Structure formats: C-alpha cells, structure tokens
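Quick note —
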Amino acid sequence: MIARSLLMTANSPMRKFARADGAEIAYHLTPGAPPGVVFLTGFRSDMTGDKATTLEAFCRDRGQAYLRFDYTGHGASSGEFTEGTIGQWAEDAIFAVDELIEGPLLLVGSSMGGWIMLLAALARRERVAGLVGIAAAPDFTEDLIWEPAAAELREQLVRTGVHYEASAYDEEPTPITLRLIEDGRRHLLLRGRIELDCPVRLLHGVQDPDVPWPTAQRLAAALASDDVEVTLIKSGDHRLSEPRDLERLKRVVGALSDEIAAAGG
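Predicted structure written out below.
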C-alpha cells in the first residue's frame, strides 16, 4: 500500500507518495483527458521551473491530464542528490507514471529529462504515445562529462568519488559523482538503435552551451521511429525558457497531443 500525504503550496496542492523502499516522491497532478502529459526535469532541476509550470497551466486550460514531479534527491522529494544516478532517476519516472497517472502518455523531457524520457518510454512502450525533447541530453555523463574531461579530473573522480563543477544556473557548485558516471554507462542509448516507434519532437537551441545541438540530430538518427522532427532555434540557449520558447513548447505539445488523441491514443 502506498502512503499518501498532502502539502499545500502557494499555487496548487503538492502531494507525496511514499514508496515501499521509504523514498517519497513529490508531485503535482492535474486530472484531465488523455494523453496525459508528464514533465521530466533536468539534472539538479525541479518541478517548479518555468517549463514545468507553464505546461501545467496549458494542460489545465485544455482539460488535459498533466503530471510534474521531482526525482529523488531533487526538489521536494526525499533523498540526497549525490546518491542519485541515471538508473535511479529513470526508476523514479517509471514509478511516477505507473502509480500517479493513467492512460496513454506524452512524455516531455528537458535536458537530462530527455534521457530519462527515453528510458521510461522503453520501459513502458505500451503506454507512451509520444515524446517531446527540450535540449535532450541522452548519454551526457559519458559524452559531455567523462570523455572531454582532463586526466586530472578523471583521476580526482576515481580517487575521491566526486568533483564539484561551477554552475551557470546555481550559486552552489554541482557535484558530479563517480557513481553517476559509472551508472550512466549502463544506460547509454546513442551507441545503437533506440527501439521506439512513437512520434517524437525535438527542440534544441543552436546557442546551447551545455548540450551541443548536433545531439538532437544524433538522437533523431538513432530512433527507430520515422515520425521524428527536429526544430533548431537559432537564438535558443539551453533552457529554452524565454516567452517565445514557452509559446513554441505549448504549440508543439498541443499539436502532438491532438494528433495522439485523433489517432485514438
């Protein structure tokens, strides 16, 4: 039996589900029509960001189901960030879609959330009817952290188990752990074919300093689906959270939701 508790925030109720392992997953759920939209946040981000809350209001206005939540070690969920891994956060996402929302799903993944989105979709292919990636970053632990790292940084990670990287988005440095890198290798996707056949929309900023835009092209090529569209935003950064970016995101999610609904998904 899953224990439920209810906390109140200034804007809407925040609930927590306690898993059998004792972890608590914080979430906001808006009931509505399918397909249910599920937002998957980025590395060290949480469900209070502009994209997550903008899509919540958008789906509420459309009468569409919507779920946003925090992985363990993120936001209002339990756990320590430095204990987390790609595999653990993917399991959090799978748990969330299994326990918190019903029916066919449209997963929306931002940055690392794009990797989690793919892993969750592979685990629940029968329910996932579409994907939207925003600066999706599959395999980032290997391609963007480990492979470019200087020998000294690799040695430090192996010796101490953690490296603190200055962040452009937070005053506190971001801890990068060896366990994150090693676990990431067990979940790499861009080294082969990604067996997903649902429609996929990928948004990526050409000015993204964190995840190079060719990553979107690599992902599109790796996906088995023929219904994959890549939109490159010439002036776009990594977050894609400017007003015009949020309007674009709503258009893409709305259009794909309508396509899925029309197809009976």
